Every structure is written in C-alpha cells, then in structure tokens.
Amino acid sequence: MIKLAVFGAGRIGYVHALNAAALPSVKLQYIVDPVPSAHLDDLAAKTGARIVDTDTVFADPSIDGVIIASSTDTHAELILKAVAGGKAMFCEKPISLNFKLVTEVAEAVAKAGTPCMLGFQRRYDPNFRLVRERIQSGASGQLEQLVMHTRDPSPPPVEYVKRSGGMFRDQAIHDFDMARYLLGEEIRTVYAVGGCLIDPEIGKAGDIDTAMITLTSKSGRFVQMNNCRRAPFGYDQRLEALCAKEVLYVENRLKNSVMIGSADGFSVAPPMNYFIERFADAYRAEMVAFVEMLQTGAAPLASMEDGLEAQRLAEAAMVSMTTGKVVELTPDWRPGSTP
Fold first, then answer.
1. pLDDT tens by residue, 198-214
2. φ, ψ for residue 33 (rounded to 5)?
3. Could you read off the pLDDT of 277-300 as tens digits, one per residue?
4. Alpha carbon distances (Å) from 35 to 7, 39, 51, 151, 246
5. For position 338, what pLDDT does the model report?
6. How many whole angstroms separate alpha carbon 143 and alpha carbon 157?
7. How far is residue 243's CA from residue 132's CA, in Å, rounded to a whole number?
C-alpha cells in the first residue's frame, strides 16, 4: 500500500487528494494546511486522512510520497524537504516565483535523484495526448504551426493576482509547456505583448489580463499563444496544430453534446465551467501516473526539468513584454540576461 500526504486543501489540493484517495493501492495518510476550515475538515472526512503539520509528514518514514498543492511560496521549501527525506513528490507549478530558487531546487532534485513529477495536467488529457502521438508517429507529418487559445471565464480576484506570479507564470505556463511537448524540441525565440484590456485593478496590481506570445522553435517552426483572463462564453481552451499532412484540432469540451433546434435556430451547451471540470480526466490520470512512478519507477510525462523550462519561457515572455524586444533563448539564458 502506497502512503501519501497532501500539502494544501484548496481548490487543486482538494482535487488531488480525492483522486489519490480513490486509488485502491493508495492510503492518503495526512493532509497539511495551516488554515483551519470546514473545507479542510470535509476533505479529511472524505479521504480518511489526518490533519497534521509539516514536521509530522517528514518525520514519518512510512510516507512514500507527497503531493505539493499548497501556495506557490511554499513549493520550493517542501520540495527540498522531500529531497532531504527521500520522499517522491508531485508538485504543482510553478516551483517558485524566484527563478534563481527554481534552478537551485531543480539542481537539488537532479543531484539526489529523487522521483519528481510536475503538475502539467494537459499532458495527461487524452485529446492532447492523441495530438502528440499522431505527430510523433509521423501520421500527421511535420508540425509547422501551433496555435493555442487559453482564456478564463472571468478575471481572478485581485488578491489572487498579487500572489500568483503574473499571468505568464500562472496561466500561460501550461501553453509554454504544451508547445515544448508537441514540438518535441526547445524554443529559440520568445516575443510577447500584453496589457490590461479587461480589469484595471489587475494592472494596478502589476499584472496583465490579455497577451499574445509568439515562439520560434530551434528548427524554425512557429507557435502562437493567445491568452486572456476573460472569454464571454466561459472557459476557452483550444488548440490547432498545422502539420504537413493534416490539421489537428482540440476544441472546447461542452457540458453536453446535445444540439437543440427550433424556429429560432440551433443552439448547443456552453463549455465546461473551468479548468477543474474541463481537465477532470487528466487530473485523475495524473495521480495514476504518480502512483505508477512510485510503484514501478516509470518516468512521468512532466518532470522537474519540464517545469524549469516552461518557467524559463514564462520569464522570457515577461522580459520581452517589458522591453519590447525578441528574447533569444540561448541554453544559458536567465532573467537578467541581455534579451
């Protein structure tokens, strides 16, 4: 029996805890969250886990792995504790808002050889995986252009914006990761523009709510990312991959597939509410993969290195937007380098 602990009982921690506890080979032993709440108590009751502090988790030699779904500012410390304790880990992105610390943590994980999986759930979505498989198998021919749309139903609260690390690190990081995943190679240049077109309060908090990012891969292929904090019809998450032999589309998932026709015309259901609902299958598959990594040593689809590279792209996009210049992403580029 695999014994796990979850850090964080918020929105995503709740999902991961329930998914882990539902697996027959898993016992969710502990939940750690410093903020007492009925939400936390409810999660403990549903999973049978004990609510404890951080030290209790890392002092227990029977814990095989930890799920880090707490606030971003706790991720690096918890990862390093897991490394020191020899416990495998699943960690939500981003690793830290301090990129120097991100590199230090990634180096520590690599040096220790601690099993680590990053929370890029789109890699586990069956539709995105099918696109990847068709491209990698050669069935689609060479991928030439990739276009991704990611738009939230509405802007997040300003208090969330202030601690999220910015739109590029928080929302667009999934698109940066998917670009690398589907291209199968690294990115050479990053050019980003962004601003506040929706909520002035987000601008006052030092962030943006609308952006367009263009990436060029090492072999010269192109990616266009369209990101926004609002879509009038709800959560918008689509992809188009233009290949030599075919074009692959991932469309929004609707709440149901019924089309209704009347004298007023035809209508369909709106998209699923938000990413938690849209990627429910992917989140379940992620936790299955994490447990498989613990049991068999199987490599996850998203590693610490993938987390590092996706965040490096996010940092480059921030520099590009600020300077108005294309960032040449050499292997040793870091924030603070000359773009």
1. 999 999 999 999 999 99
2. -155, 120
3. 999 999 999 999 999 999 999 999
4. 12, 10, 11, 30, 50
5. 55
6. 37
7. 12
